[in-house]
Write a structure and sequence with these properties.
The structure is a homodimer of 224-residue chains. With 224 residues, chain A is of the alpha+beta class. Chain A is 44% helix and 23% strand. The first copy, chain A, is built from 8 helices and 10 strands. In chain A, the strands form 3 sheets. A 4-stranded antiparallel sheet of chain A has the order 1-8-3-6. In chain A, strands 2-7-4-5 form a 4-stranded antiparallel sheet. The longest helix of chain A has 27 residues. The two termini of chain A are 36 Å apart. At the A-B interface, helix 2 and helix 4 of A face helix 2 and helix 4 of B. Chain A binds a DNA duplex (30 and 30 nucleotides) through helix 7.
Chain lengths: 224, 224
DNA sequence: GGCAAGCAATGACTTTTATCATATCTTTGA
DNA sequence: TCAAAGATATGATAAAAGTCATTGCTTGCC
């Protein structure tokens, strides 16, 4: 159950509050490809991911997905629209079989009201996300496709890590990568071939491994 | 003073809380072009704009500004990094002479802790901003320059309104518009000429007037 | 009022990226 | 296990956008 996660959004709550939450929540699961929340809908609660990987995306013109970010263990889905009292602005779909807790709107607000520290934590979280969104805006506006692709590969590595064989521990199609980078699928494929030829990454089927992190950082213009 | 604004971030506070804030705050003013907060710095407080217009932007590679959004009467500057406890992620510069209240970090947090409703309002605000940022990401990633320019012109109109002559009540150079749209200055100039020729906007010097809102919405692919 | 600095405008040209077409490789499920 | 569907790969070409160069217009300041 997601409350027990070390890094769960709810991890800092008192035991009492956690106990109450665990009474109010229900457990749900989603199969790979299943839509969890849908853009435009009015949310009735939030999901806290226990185990799994989820993409958050908006539909652009021509029905093309734009992936905004990923959500994984311990993180929330749907809190943004619940708190801003707006329609859901981004759909969420499971990228692999996913298990989550569902917390109804009223219970969620109850926890917020009774736990000022939790409310502050949410505030901190959303402000952090805002900073990340700003970075993404600047990259999309100013970097070229190759720079953006290198940046996204590094983000994927930092977010999901690597499996035993060194491949990124996340399975995305080239099209999904293109939908993050903001480009055509063919361009991603071409550039992945190029990065592979230059020895900065390797790939087998859809799986990708970062082999030269420094080189990617240089390509992406990241100095940290 | 900014606390008295109808639409100020602080408008819902109790009179007591407002009184206390007004003791803790100081008044500051910025001349056109003056930097208010600087990317990378650690903020020591927040600014609440009383009167004026401010651009919020990050520096991309090659030192090119990327304007994330504008801030005007009643809105806060610097709260994001204060709340997420990070370095300032976006600089703010006055676009015209601007008057603001400065509220030191400790006072700001005091108000948050003592007024749960205010804390919730900030949460709502930042969640709303997150939604807007998501929209901007999708536009930048999927729309072409002309569509984005039309969208930005509509946003400027909605944010700043028009003066007596019907011109947008905000003075931006073509370069600044390009820094919002995420394109080259020349491209913005060319497209403004084109929109003007087609009769959708008019312009005189740097001033721009939207004459056919519907047409711009159609160009921008906005259906609302 | 005139002059300089900064901005806007436009043309010519290059580079980047998208699109379309087609071939080949991988998965997946009957 | 084998066929079909779905993904990846690559080439040719077109379209979009950026860059560089130059001219002309505004504006603000002495």
């Amino acid at each position: 159950m997601c409350l027990s996660h070390q890094k769960s959004t709810f991890s800092d709550l008192s035991n009492d509050a956690k106990d109450e939450l665990s009474r109010l929540k229900t457990c749900v699961s989603f199969r790979k490809g299943q839509v969890i929340i849908h853009e435009g809908a009015r949310p009735q609660g939030v999901y806290c991911i226990h185990r799994g990987k989820v993409k958050l995306y908006t539909m652009g013109t021509e029905g093309k997905e734009q992936i905004i970010r990923f959500i994984t263990n311990g993180e929330l889905i749907g809190y943004r629209s619940l708190l801003s009292d707006e329609a859901i602005s981004a759909s969420a779909t499971a990228l692999e079989d996913t298990f989550a807790c569902y917390i109804p709107k009223s219970s969620f607000f109850k926890v917020i009201e009774e736990n000022p520290k939790f409310s502050l934590k949410l505030l901190k979280m959303s402000c952090h996300e805002l900073g990340e969104a700003g970075k993404m805006i600047t990259s999309l506006a100013q970097k070229n496709v190759k720079e953006r692709l290198a940046e996204i590969l590094l983000i994927l590595r930092a977010t999901f890590g690597e499996d035993e064989e060194g491949y990124l521990d996340i399975s995305l199609t080239r099209e999904e990568i293109a939908n993050m980078v903001g480009t055509a699928t063919e361009s991603v494929i071409r550039l992945i071939s190029e990065l592979k030829k230059d020895g900065y990454i390797s790939s087998k089927g859809k799986r990708i491994a970062v082999s030269d992190r420094g080189a990617l950082q240089q390509i992406a213009n990241i100095f940290e």
